[in-house]
Design brief:
This protein is mainly α. Helix content is 73%, strand content 0%. It has six helices and no strands. The longest helix has 42 residues. The termini are far apart. The mean pLDDT is 88.
Length: 163
């Protein structure tokens, strides 16, 4: 797990998926764990993209106050000043929302500028998600085929024992 990930959240996630998949053998359990890890990694990449964009959003929101448009504020501001308006906007602060509205700027415009700044990162992570989703589909197909070959549980009705 990465430093920002909650071990208990992962354990709950793992247990929920394993309960849903219901592996019956060690091999099925191994495949099911691989599916869990792929799902977790997909959500990790999506969290990273959102984090990059939120960070850039904070930085670009500061430019609205000074320039009337989304863009990084002047380098003379400290980091805390750069992110103050953006942090307030992300929190839904009415004063910050009023300030950008008075400048004729929307949160979507700031988000677009923030995303364009991090496009290389976004493309990388979205590519990884796409690769992981392909792996997941293939692994899930294998898992489902293996599950369908599993013998029925319990006794066979109307069976006759032959001696």
């Amino acid at each position: 797990l990465l430093p920002d990930e909650d071990p208990q959240e992962f354990i709950d996630f793992r247990d929920d998926l394993l309960e849903e998949l219901k592996p019956q053998t060690r091999y099925q359990h191994s495949l099911a764990l691989n599916l869990v890890l792929i799902e977790w990694e997909i959500s990790r990449h999506r969290r990273m993209v959102a984090s990059f964009v939120r960070d850039q959003f904070r930085r670009h929101a500061a430019g609205v106050r000074g320039n009337g448009a989304a863009g990084k504020s002047s380098p003379s501001y400290g980091y805390s000043e750069d992110v103050k308006d953006g942090t307030a906007l992300l929190a839904g602060d009415r004063n910050a929302l009023s300030m950008i509205a008075s400048k004729g700027v929307t949160k979507s415009e700031i988000t677009a500028v923030a995303m364009s700044d991090k496009l290389d990162h976004i493309v990388y992570h979205e590519g990884r998600v796409s690769d992981l989703e392909r792996r997941r589909r293939s692994l899930r197909d294998d898992y489902d085929r293996l599950q369908s070959k599993r013998p029925p549980s319990g006794d066979v009705e109307d069976a006759v024992e032959v001696i």
